[in-house]
From TrEMBL:
Gene3D superfamilies: P-loop containing nucleotide triphosphate hydrolases (3.40.50.300). Keywords: Membrane, Transmembrane, Transmembrane helix. Transmembrane segments: none annotated. It is found in: Membrane. Residues 24-143 form the G domain. The lineage of its organism: Bacteria, Pseudomonadati, Pseudomonadota, Betaproteobacteria, Burkholderiales. InterPro entries: DUF697, GTP-bd, P-loop_NTPase. Pfam families: DUF697, MMR_HSR1. This is G domain-containing protein.
Length: 356
């Protein structure tokens, strides 16, 4: 069996590769609330003032270490050289789409139009027409307070949009003192997920903080895949072979879940979590494994029965570990969407969850 250090390295590399990177273009006039929207939806306040690298004269590329997304923020829709701006942006999209590395493609676009304005400008129609030719486009009506038929008008004027959604990024106070809560952000993530390649959904889950259920959904898929692999390992007719095969499966699962929840994927964090999990469940796991593997020494029925029992046990233990970890992370992020839990805190809460 490989040593723990090698297993951790391989698990981190695999989880990072499988998560990948997603790129979303966010376009709109000045004042429509793009920066507020970006900061409300994605981790680490991506749109803070001064962040971003110029891509064209009026488009900047925003990214942060540890967040698997790049935002292309377009400006200049009000400028006299709008046609030049549009042409430059189209070239960026085309060049990206021709690259072999899918992590460089632009996977979706959000066209932001504020509800307060009650009109769709010609420049926005032209931008919609261009974007829809090259990338899946969602039109986002920002600062939503009172529709009064505006959404239907947007749908009529921008028919190539895959969807149109009204959102409000932050809690706001109206003139009469009435408070209105954020809305539509979780649905925006779901709609975006529908139009991007399936292989980019883990990156979307990790990068966003607006939809906790979406993170959980992607994590459940990882657990299901690990459970299937664990069952196959447990059914191996070779005595004691499953223990060596199960370790990388379960460590890989923990790494994958950590990754889609957007947490730092380091050897230190993963080692602490894995050690914690084995410390809680190890005795039971080893006991069952020994009994089952003894049966494998007997030919015929013993081998079949041993494999079947071990497959069920291996799958159940893997699911138990994965679901307990998801539950811990869900509790943490339901309390604070911007939480940065330490490895020690995660390990302690995972122990408590597994003992409970």
């Amino acid at each position: 069996m490989q040593n723990l250090d090698d297993l951790l390295k391989e698990a981190i590399q695999k989880a990072t590769t499988e998560r990948g990177h997603i790129n979303i273009l966010i376009a709109g006039r000045s004042g429509v609330g793009k920066s507020t929207l970006i900061n409300a939806v994605f981790q680490k306040n991506l749109a803070e003032t001064g962040q971003g690298r110029p891509v064209t004269q009026n488009t900047r590329e925003i990214s942060r270490d540890g967040v698997p997304i790049t935002i292309f923020d377009t400006r200049g829709l009000e400028m006299s050289q709008f046609r030049e701006t549009l042409s430059e942006l189209e070239k960026v999209i085309k060049d990206r789409s021709n690259e072999k590395d899918s992590n460089r493609h632009i996977h979706a676009a959000w066209l932001c139009i504020q509800e307060d304005g009650r009109r769709v400008e010609n420049a926005e129609v032209d931008l919609h027409n261009m974007l829809a030719q090259h990338v899946p486009l969602i039109t986002v009506i920002t600062k939503a307070r009172s529709d009064n038929g505006f959404k239907n008008e947007v749908i009529r004027l921008l028919p190539e949009s895959r969807n149109v959604i009204r959102v409000r990024a932050i809690r706001e106070e109206l003139d009469d003192g009435y408070m209105i809560d954020p809305m539509g952000l979780d649905t925006l993530i779901e709609l975006t997920s529908e139009v991007i390649p399936e292989g980019k959904r883990k990156a979307l889950a990790a990068a966003q903080k607006a939809n906790l259920n979406y993170k959980k959904l992607q994590a459940h898929k990882i657990v299901a895949g690990a459970a299937t692999a664990a069952a196959a390992a447990g059914a191996s007719p070779i005595p004691f072979s499953d223990a060596a095969i199960l370790a990388p499966i379960q460590i890989g699962m923990v790494a994958g879940i950590t990754s889609v929840f957007g947490l730092e994927l380091s050897k230190g964090t993963l080692s602490t979590l894995v050690t914690s999990a084995i410390g809680v469940g190890g005795a039971t796991f080893v006991g069952r494994t020994i009994v089952v593997n003894v049966l494998k020494f007997f030919p015929g029925v013993g081998t079949i029965a041993g494999g079947a029992i071990s497959a069920a046990t291996a799958s159940a233990i893997t699911i138990g570990l994965g679901e307990a970890y998801i539950a811990v992370l869900a509790e943490i992020f339901s309390e604070d969407a911007d939480a940065i839990p330490t490895a020690a805190n995660l390990a302690d809460r995972l122990k408590d969850k597994m003992n409970g």
